[in-house]
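Quick one before lunch.
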Amino acid sequence: MKSKTVLIIGGGIGGLVTANRLRQLLPRQYHIVLVEKNEQHSFAPSFLWLMTGERRPEQISRPLRQMVRPGVKIVQAQVGSVDPVNQRVTLGGSQLAYDYLVLALGAELAPEAIPGLAEAAYTFYTLEGTVKLRDALKTFGGGTIAVVVSAVPYKCPGAPHEAAMLIADLFRRKGMAEKVDVHLFTPEPQPMPVAGPALGEAVKQMLTTKGVSFHPLHKLTSVSPQSQELSFEGKEPFHYDLLAAIPPHRAPRLLKEAGLTNEAGWVPVDRATLKTRYENIYALGDVTALPIPGRWKPDVPMALPKAGVFAHAQGLVVARRLADEIKGIAAKETFCGGGYCMLEVGESLAGFASGDFFAEPAPDVQLRKLGRTWHLGKVLFEKWWLSPTGLRRRALGLALGIGSRFFKVPGSF
Ligand SMILES: Cc1cc2nc3c(=O)[nH]c(=O)nc-3n(C[C@H](O)[C@H](O)[C@H](O)COP(=O)(O)OP(=O)(O)OC[C@H]3O[C@@H](n4cnc5c(N)ncnc54)[C@H](O)[C@@H]3O)c2cc1C
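Model of the flavin-adenine dinucleotide complex:
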């Protein structure tokens, strides 16, 4: 059999899962190459615990090499361009050819898209940003904290709500609840609109219980670092003492230059197969635009949320499909739109939302009662994800597998 090269660009959640599963499925004569610009991998869902001081950066980061199975070639480089016609990508001065390409470049943050935001805001969306925010929260003497979703779409629909509740909980534990007001602003009409009104109402209740003031339909237009003021479209300005923002997101520009994106800059894929318009190019995770049933506004169709749980599931599907295609077997594996999310609220408690995002006429997502189990499940998942290989990983994987069957959690590990 002729050797083939599968090139995966982006070694985050989706890229890692694809590379590792593919290495299990394909004999060594097939080359699996993973291109990633960073030497270290950091687990983003743990940034919220980093923010509250419950994790240190080194506890949630690993050298990429440790995250990858033997037999996957890592190229540490920044991809500069993709040439789908000639089947190659450029890295600085060199080029890499491929037979199959997987786009797993994630979403970039663009704080500069909103005047004043980059200068004024802390963020819990990068490792470095979260460390700075943690330090600012440590010394915060009291006042108004604004957590702001500055634009849609953004990664992890639960994260801003979790961040606001965890910040409120942090100051409650310090005995400063009376001195600190936490406000959450979003352009969305309700928390996690993709999951429907009942779930949104339940999350609103959680926010209220935690003392977080929720401000929907607030579209941020600018920030004044001097007067510490947020400006919103058609709303009153708001004064803050500390600002923690989710910056606007965009897809890496090189994909647009390669003609792989839609008007909004994201990569459209077939929702079942995750194929782009090129037969030999798949895309997965945050970089994709994947339509789902339902409407965001009357004229705007809903898109699958950007979340690690989907990048992970899609990585498994892409790996299986690629392995079958390469072996000449008809590929049957499809992405079914199942997903879940543990919503941390503080006090070692979490909610659990799960469901079918492809359900008609709109996603069917249910929220289960707050509990310690969901928090422990999230901790267990973190430990499993960050355990490189070997017995510990297998034991944690087994525990997760049993737990997910017992609690009927969609997905596999
Ligand atoms: C604070 C926070 C909390 C979150 N919590 C959750 C959660 O609880 N559950 C959940 O499901 N999701 C959560 N997420 C979202 C989750 O982290 C992302 O959805 C997930 O990482 C997407 O995976 P991906 O593979 O598409 O992209 P990423 O994991 O972002 O990986 C993309 C990779 O591509 C690399 N890259 C980009 N451009 C280039 C280039 N030009 N050349 C080479 N490499 C490049 C990047 O360095 C990166 O490693 C959270 C995110 C944040 C920020």
